[in-house]
Fold each of these.
Amino acid sequence: MDATNVLEDGSIKPESLPVVHGADEERATRERPRWRTTAAIYAFSASLALVAAGLCLRGPLQGLGPVRELLPQGAMFSIIFVLWAVANWVPVSLHFRGNTTLVVLEDGPLLIGLAFLAPNLLVLSAASAALLVFAVVRRQAPMKLTFNVATTALGIAVAAVVFREILGTDRPVSPVGWAAAVAAMVAYQIVSAMALRVVTLLAGQAVPKRNRIIHIAFHAMLIAASMCLALAFFDAAWFDPWTTLPLLLVAALIIVAYRGYNRLSLRFSALEHLYDFSRTMGTASLEPSSMSVDVLKKVCTVMRARRAELVLAEPTGIPRRITFDDRGASGIESITLHEASIVSQAIASGEASLHRSAGQDEPVSFDPIVGEYHEAIVAPLMNRHTTIGAIIAIDRDEELDSFDDDDLRLFETLVAHASTSLERARLVEELRYEVDSKSHQATHDMLTGLPNRMLFLTRAATALSESGGVAIVLLDIDRFKDVNDTLGHAIGDRLLCEIAERLLRAVSGRATVARLGGDEFALVLSDVTDPRRAVEIVEELNVEMQRPIKMDGLTLAVTASAGIAMAPEHGDDVSLLLQRADIAMYLAKDRRSTVEVYSVEHDQSMQRWLMLGGLLTHALETGTELSLMYQPIGDVQSKEIAYVEALCRWNHPVQGFIPPEEFIGIAEQMGLIPQITDFVLNEGCAQLARWRDAGITLGLAVNVSGREFADINLVDRVEKCLRQYDIPANLLTLEVTETEIMADLGAATKVLDELSARGIKLGIDDYGTGYSSLQYLHKLPVNELKIDRSFVTNLPNEASNRIIVRSSIQMAHSLGLYVIAEGAEDELTCAMLAEAQCDFIQGYYLSKPQKPAELQEWILGGAKLKFAPITEIPGSEGAALMLLSKSG
């Protein structure tokens, strides 16, 4: 990236050629023949081009190739050409103390070219890009075009020589390489600056000396920043070219954001100065004796002009001119209106106009009244329907900037309404609207229009001071992240707006509803002393939110978890109440309840929750505290151990054994389920490989959260694990509870299909406890159903359970599914399941969960599923009759 000043037309990068001040210098400029100046500049430009060609073709750069060939040279030539052209085509202008500085993204392409392109090709590519931009886009005059292209070619050639000499045989990505890169960029800057200095002297002009130290410091700071960014871009390209794409995107976003900010800044600045100007003009008389130079100062400020003039040409008086020049004398004088003057033309026509010099070869125009100018805006000054004069803004203060049609309209408005109270009132109204809009934005959520956190805290504090009882409600949308991830942020934003509207309708003015951020909303309920009343209100809100929401052909069902803190019972400070409502809300999520009211015990449970969350994160990082137990599953027909279910266990060195039902819930809240799934898959597959080496072939069942099936990356993770340990896909069964799979069936179906297509078995766990239907089960690519233990454990004594189990088995078989019954704790239960044609049995009767070594020894010792036929088991006559009657 390069940061330098530019010529008047915004083309080249060095400082613009300034106007010479002082009578002697101006006289010298006028006396020097123009053709000699032009010839000298052409000759100098040609010498620059010849030196550049000599360095490439006959000098130290001859025959050199790239430091590293990342792409074929033709392709790299095109890339550098495009990057260089874009960098010069889309510069960013910085306005600083009356000067305009361009930030040109050239250092990045320069370093990329120095490393990956032959030097002669780099010079040709950059020079060609400069020629394209300056000739076609900028439409420069031939003299400036020649100078710019020649300077670019020589600067790059010198930079290449410096880079190669310092780099030697070192890598570009090293301290020596960085030093070479910095030296090359500095050399490029020096060549450009020196060439500009020479051409400035040839043109008979001098660089302005005001603010020289400040300008140099600011300029050096920009160059240093550009070099640092270029080095970061270059290093990224060296290791992986694809990493430059985010950097390019960030650069583009910064440029767009800054340009938008710069436009808004200039607009607001102009509006502020315009308001001050209108007030000044509204109180000033148009008589020359009372007209202040301060009025023209305001013109210069608003229009960012170097000088301004006010010409009064009343029919009954002598024309007068009041002038203000920030670089010269100001005053008032009598004049004669000349017909050829732009001032006279504006007074005669009554229309504003913009005037520029004749062209690039004629940079200065002369007016009988205004004098010499590069550009000027003139607008007639009206008193009701009579033209009484004109105001002129002459030459922009910045070297780069110039007046345009927008400035013309601004200036015309400024002059036409300067003394009009109606315009002043309109401007005040616009400014007040801007202030009100900013105030509203500071206290309200931009998406939903609800009060934001700042306004919520203010209103909550007011309610606490004015009301005898206040309830603070914190409400969080369940699984909102899944909506964003699967349907996109646009749908998520629309959903938040719909929820906000529903909350407002439901509270009906009884509460303040605010959005604190993300999917978190808060309410302030005043005059509520009974927690049960607060709970009733929240339940009413949930009823309203749970109504189906239709968006783009989709029907969404929204649920929320809410926590309530009461004042003064739970505190009298807004922050404390909000914190305790947050604790209650997390408890509601953990318990899967709609709403919870804070209690002191919640703090303790939350402290344990937070503690275990941190410990679990550490355990997953180290992998030393988590382990797997394996519970065998027996084949009813062969009595062999068919496969095992992997069960995750956590033994902390201080906290001891932590139940799965506790830490799995914490993992779900903290988003750690994918890490636990990966741990179980890797440990389980590794153990299968070890058992296979020991002569034991088993299948492995792994429980997977339903949320995992909404992530297509699950397929790649499972495949990677199987490949790592060389495990056949048909030995792995992924189990998910029917409640979780049915909660988001649409998102899960695609992942299930992908897994099934790769030969991985799929099972429905805890069947019978959810709400799945035959229609959906028939469509899902599942292989087996696992009947929940609640129907199996007391099977001999519960007739209803026997009916459910038998019908579930028959239904599953009709769909071509295998059936596993978990929770078989005795021989009679196993016999009854076998009689009902169950395929697999899991339970304590066969074996409790075992450690890998114990299980291996047990299997090698001839472990099998053993049970007698149901008719041979003592005391089973009733059960046998029941089963026979159902089968008959």
Amino acid sequence: MRSDDNDPIETQEWLDALASLVENEGKERAQYMLQKLLEKAEKQGIQSGAAPLSTSYSNTIAVEDQPAYPGNLELEAVIEALIRWNAIAMVLAAKNKAGGVGGHLSSFASIATLYEVGLNHFFKGATKGSPGDLIYFQGHSAEGNYARAFLEGRLSEKQLKNFRQEVDGKGLSSYPHPWLMPNFWQFATVSLGLGLIQGVYQARFLKYLQNRGLLETDGRRVWVFCGDGEMDEPESIAGLSLAAREKLDNLTFVINCNLQRLDGLVRGNGKIIQELEGIFRGAGWNVIKVLWDSRWDALFAKDKTGALIKRLNECLDGDLQTAYVRGGTYTREFIFNTDELKSLVADLSDEELGQLNRGAHDPVKVYAAYSAAVQHKDQPTVILAQSVKGYGLGTTTAEGRNVAHNALEMNDDELTTFHGRFKLTCSDQDLIKHRFIKPEKDSPEIKYLFDQREKLGGFLPAREVISQPLPVPELSAFDTMLQGSEDRTMSTTMVLGRIMNVLLKDKTLGKRIVPIFSDEVRTFGMEALFRQVGIYSPVGQLYTPEDKEQFLYYHEVENGQVLEEGITEAGCMSSWIAAATSYMTNQFPMVPFFTYYSMFGFQREGDLIWAAGDMRARGFLIGATAGRTTLEGEGLQHQDGTSLLSAAGVPNCRAYDPAFGYEMAVIIQHGLQEMIAEEKDEFYYITAMNERYVQPAMPKDVEKGIIKGMYLLSRGEKAKHTVQLCGSGAILNEVIAAADLLKKDFDISADVWSLTSINELHRDGVAVERDSMLAPDKKPAVSYVEQCLKGHKGPVITATDYVRAYAELIRPYISRTYVTLGTDGFGRSDTRESLRRFFEVDRYYIAVAALYALMKDGEIPASQVADAIKKYGIDPEKPNPMTV
């Protein structure tokens, strides 16, 4: 009761009336009446204030509303205990065998019951009629998944003994990794925060497939497990509003709130669960809190004044953690710290008080939450489940303690205590010797485990890929791009639009194309897609757009094909990953194209791109307005000089920097052939520019070179001196112009090469060098770069619109003088011409670099280089762009 209440009797009458309404007519009626009262108050000018974003520190689902538990709690307890032990034994055995391979004892210990209730009663496996639910398991709890799969017979004892020892192919990956365990893991979730945002867009993609009439996805659910500490990652909450706005009731987050992160409390001075509840409620989610186990029910029932709830609301997370670790005696004095509260627990011993547990370890409470979540409509649901980190490991060393994350050992006494606590049927010696426990196939536990999974479908986690090769258009389908633009100027981004138009009209692939943009469709000149295939919206277009009268108006439609995500590259990447892995998750291949400012790809969302590689994604990333000088006037934050260099580090990313439309057409057609027809687990990063110039027709027989990364564009006229000029993307036209300058001003011949992919050339060179090193008795192989340059005299000069380190990737495979030019340093706002002069990659600097290379070879005197510098107006005193 408020201390400023001047009429407590009247207040109590109103409260009694509300209680009577709930009792006689139900909660929904009470909620309706409260809403009407608020509306009436507002009409009369009474400021009622916003509804609270967090509720009391208690379970959301009342005891009387809990459904009956459908399973055998005794058998499930035995199964869970076996899984808990085998997970522990796996870590301990690996540590003893391999020393520093590590592992996590505490994370799975806190989440085990949350997994087991789901796997026994909710998580649908793949059947003939459906690919099943999509589960984003918490990355740091992989041991538990392996321990269960061992009981299921899917993993061997030998594999468990080789946990985190994968090099010889006999072990298990430390974390969920679809590349290393392609038949087991679906999603790579250990990079904190990425699982949550991917889960949101995965749930949305299921709705997208359904609304477009491509696939029946009703009945499938996305479950995302994570820790409360993980919620501090920006990506963890980045998709919450989308999930609520699009009413993704096929999505459930389960946040394992053990109140701890790696070094200490998540919110020692606050209450993380209350904070998260406010965030999710504010975003429009359905929130279910599972805080206290069934032992607390009697105490809450005895508390007629709300004193216990009030006290729990007051207790900070740091206090709750201390009370748990110090046990019943401390709990009695600290939490039950008034006469009224002490009377509630007067009949409980200190030992019984210490057994009051948290809700995440009570299968009855967890089942009630999961059941409510799957039945809830029109909102995504988050379950905030309070647990104990290191649950069951013993409070003397790990359980509930700040050091829990680093706990990698259990002494003999702790193992014996564990044995008794979880009622394992093995001997103490089995535990002390870290022996795995697996009952016989006909044991009640194993039969029950199999029966429950049979009801729900196949085992989980599991990754199944059904071969579904699809025909792709022949290169001739892109003939208009191959023929060039004659006398019209055109950017490669415009060419991309034409390629997309061809693909969208293809009878087989058209419906599977997923164009994805982060609010930049008009920027890239591709707004024709608005009318052609529409922008996806689950509700269609409820308003009249102001540009309705225009031919290419902003057109939202329920079965739209374009995913126009707004300003969120992370959201776009998550949508792209959902589409790029659909061949596996939905057994329905899709072809996503995510087109974005190239600067906002590998630099901003590199972790998601790496995750896509881990998950064997297939699709196209288009880095538009690519390069550091192709985009005029935008400056530092939009000018990309590093994406291609970053892409070189992702093993299954094939990155290209085409200068001409025909190069782009060849690369995309080849990518489709590799990914869709031949089903290779790789994805393509392709740059696109907004600089317009005449697009030439494709020369003969260059397709192979385009794909391998290098081909001869033009051969120079014969002269006394010859150089090899290489360029790509935005700078290739400058290279061509430099060749003309060299011939006109100095009578030097230049062969011009288009380097469509320095990345591919680098990988080829590395592979060739490795093969030669490991077969020293054989004739050394020759890299593709060396093959191309054979018979072409003179030093090699490479200029790109990227940092010089990118061009340096092929230096080891060029056995002659090699000079590189790149755009090192911070970006600038200016014209293309000024930017290229500033970064020293324009035609004049390329020509000077060629002369300098000839001077290094002793072919021409230094004075000739100096003359060129003066002739082209280059200032030798100009500051180095790397340093300004």
Amino acid sequence: MARRTLAARFNRVQPALAFAAARLDEDVPLAALSARARLSPFHLHRMFAAVAGETPKQFTLRLRLSRAAALLLGGDDSVLNVALSCGFLSHETFTRAFRRRFGMTPRAYRARGFAVDAGVGEAATHAAIVKRIAPCVGLFHVRPDGAPQRSDMSYSIVKKDLAPQPVLVVRRRIKRSEIAATIGTVLPLVFEYAQQHGIALSGHPFARYSDVGPGLMTIEPGMRVAGPVKPASVSGDAARKMSATEGGVVEDTLPGGPAATTIHAGLYESLSEAYAALESWMESQGLQSAGAPWESYITDPGEVPDPKDWRTEVCWPVR
């Protein structure tokens, strides 16, 4: 019942989430968001907080600051122009909000730069990922309202040669029933860690299943990054906040080499069918597992409301 209630709330709030995320340079009143969701301002405010874990005002401020941080690292506009383009009315208001979140002024954040030197292309990729991922980073593995749907799709399996990929992950030992909640909690944590430390993001968020037992499993939700990282220092209130919330973010690598891959279309809860298809294909080809599989979230549920249009790539290293 609780899952269906949360899912129903997500279905109602998603238009307001998308509307707010697309208008960060505007002052969007609560009445406008509630109109998009066809709810009263009071009910929209309460439902929004239940789904997103933050109020509409907090959501908008977080996205504005995330976008501003990416622009400071990857562009040469003045701090004032960055502030104005992200919806702040003055340099002073922007600086106070930025310092509270990142523990330093916008100017100091820009001067510190990326934790590892990033070229123009990497900086642009980072900015694009921040813009796309920030609104829905806690919504992956959400289950929409309604009865469970069975996926009858056929899977096209492709063997790829993957390059090693540096990542940031958090490891959790959990029950199967906790997968969705764990991913929804951990990915925002990793995303904030990368931004706080000036680590360039480079691809889709993912979750790797490194040890699966009959009762418990080890899951590693994470984010792809541009290179091996040595996190830059963070000070002030942001440092104290992060020391309490980082929750074991560590540097790791998705392995390179041959892997069986496929694309799953639809609900996250039927992803097991994609893994089963990969296992069957590997057996038919005489291939053995060479490591833990992972799933990459190509489609953002915050942007694409219809579950049938969600896409998840599943990769399984083989030998």
Amino acid sequence: MAMQTNIHLRLAIPADIPVLRALIDASVRGLQAQDYTPAQIEGALKTVFGVDSQLIADGTYIVAEAISAGRKHAEPENVRAATLIVGCGGWSKRKTLYGGDRWTGREDELLDPRRDAAKIRAFFIDPAWARQGIGGMILEACEAAARAAGFTRYEMGATLTGAKLFGVKGYVAVKPISIPLMNGEVLPVIHMEKQT
């Protein structure tokens, strides 16, 4: 069977939330273990990491789908396509810098693109699809959408794992942030910024 895989970006919809929850859990456990302790990972998954339904409602959360077309035979009617969400990330026009629905430090006020930076938010990649350019594709789409909305600066609270990608993409570290977690642990992240 011949297989061909393409990555397609689209806006997330509420029906994606169960798949996104599983993806975020797998991503954090599989890709952040070199940068965070097991206790930090568990605490972060219960406190700050997770789906942000406000991003989905705002139409600023993007999923990357791997679309595989396989053929059993040469006849076109036997072509089957399967999709799998392999990454996600977004941008926000609201004040919240990081955190999913469970995060208590949310600030949902709208930003002013003339003076505020758009927030780059909630990037997670399926470990089986890591280091294949998916995060960069999502980031470019987020920056383009924020630019189209009038923003000229971007900022984020990057995980230690994500900061490596974002540094290569022109983001600079501004200051460390320590996020208190519900299990008593602290999650270090990096406030990063970029100007267009």
